[in-house]
Write a structure and sequence with these properties.
The chain is an alpha/beta fold. The protein contains 17 helices and nine strands. The model has no long low-confidence stretch (mean pLDDT 95).
Length: 344
């Protein structure tokens, strides 16, 4: 069965025109969603905890800011955009008491619903709109009139219009112009976690670091190893992003293309796929979720230790030095300020 993809002619803003939308959290995604919805002409309030550093930023953008509880009480649609590990407590303390029948609770990632951390009452809509880009890009492409693709999933639909409300929300943040793919909370959660762990974050970061260490241990200069294993990654990823693996292979040299065929399957081989399947199995059976939830509940000791170890790795020290010499990596004022600092 072909995938179901929705576009602008499949939805209007109508289901949200007379509604109030509460964006809970004002990080990268919260910031983008709130501003895009506001600029689409919808009524938006931002819910933040007392003392939030984001309050001044949101107010400076002209947004109405309330406590999470007040925002949840006022709103017809509540989009929960705080980090996964904080969602349960925020929900229990400030949102659940105000989830009256007919309201809509929304997510941009299915973790807490799929793994039972949040169990909404049966008389509220529960849906997901998950943009497939960081919040900064969601905002940038909205302003350019393009938008980023997103996923839509419906977990509960007592009102019978959860999909229509979800698609209206997707239109409000600009995603229907790029396409919104129908999925489920289960599929989004499990594929997202697998992609992060095995490829996008865990896999790529480990591959880069291992390549760097291999060259340095063989006696090559750390700076050369950094350029070859980390810096040039953006070139390759951009080519893949634009036209897939075939396009990348068409653009790089024949030597590089043959090196791809010659060595790629030696580095990432059948043994690697066995491990990937084990990783996916731990996601599917809930093992990863249980371990991650327990890690957060016990004070995040292992998480913080690993963060410290990776942050202080030599590749990060070398990278900081080299990036400081390349102000053109940044754009606009940031680049000019960095170049001026380098000259002084």
């Amino acid at each position: 069965m072909p995938a179901v993809i929705y576009y602008e002619n499949d939805a209007t803003l109508g289901p949200l025109q007379d509604k109030t939308i509460a964006i809970i959290g004002y990080g990268a995604q919260g910031h983008a969603h709130a501003l895009n919805l506001r600029d689409s002409g919808l009524s938006v309030i931002v819910g933040l905890h007392e003392g939030s550093k984001s309050r001044a930023k949101a107010e400076a953008e002209g947004l109405r800011v309330e406590s999470v509880a007040d925002a949840a009480q006022t709103a017809d649609v509540i989009m929960l955009l705080v980090p996964d590990h904080k969602q349960k407590s925020v929900y229990e303390e400030s949102i659940k008491p105000h989830l009256t029948a007919g309201k809509t609770l929304m997510f941009a990632h299915g973790f807490c619903i799929h793994f039972g951390q949040i169990e909404p009452p049966a008389d509220v809509n529960v849906s997901m709109i998950a943009p497939k880009a960081p919040g900064q890009r969601v905002r940038e492409l909205f302003q350019e009139g393009v938008g980023v693709p997103a996923l839509i999933a419906i977990h509960q639909d007592p009102s019978g219009n959860a999909k229509e409300v979800g698609l209206a929300y997707a239109r409000g943040i600009g995603s229907l112009s790029a396409g919104v793919l129908a999925t489920t909370f289960k599929e989004e959660t499990e594929t997202d976690l697998f992609g992060e762990q095995a490829v996008l974050c865990g896999g790529v970061a480990a591959l880069i670091t291992a390549g760097y260490e291999t060259l340095v241990e063989a006696g090559y200069e750390p700076e050369s190893a950094y350029f070859e294993c980390l810096h040039e990654m953006k070139l390759i990823v951009d080519l893949i992003y634009e036209g897939g693996l075939t396009h990348m292979r068409e653009v790089v040299s024949d030597t590089a293309e043959w090196g791809d065929y010659y060595a790629g399957r030696q580095v990432i081989n059948d043994d690697t796929k066995v491990v990937m399947k084990q990783i996916l199995g731990k996601i599917q059976d809930g093992t990863f979720a249980k371990e991650w939830i327990a890690e957060n509940e016990s004070g995040r000791t292992n998480f913080l230790a690993r963060r410290e170890a990776e942050t202080t790795h030599e590749i990060e020290q070398v990278g900081t030095q080299l990036r400081g010499m390349m102000p053109w990596l940044k754009s606009g004022k940031a680049a000019r300020d960095q170049a001026a600092a380098n000259r002084n």
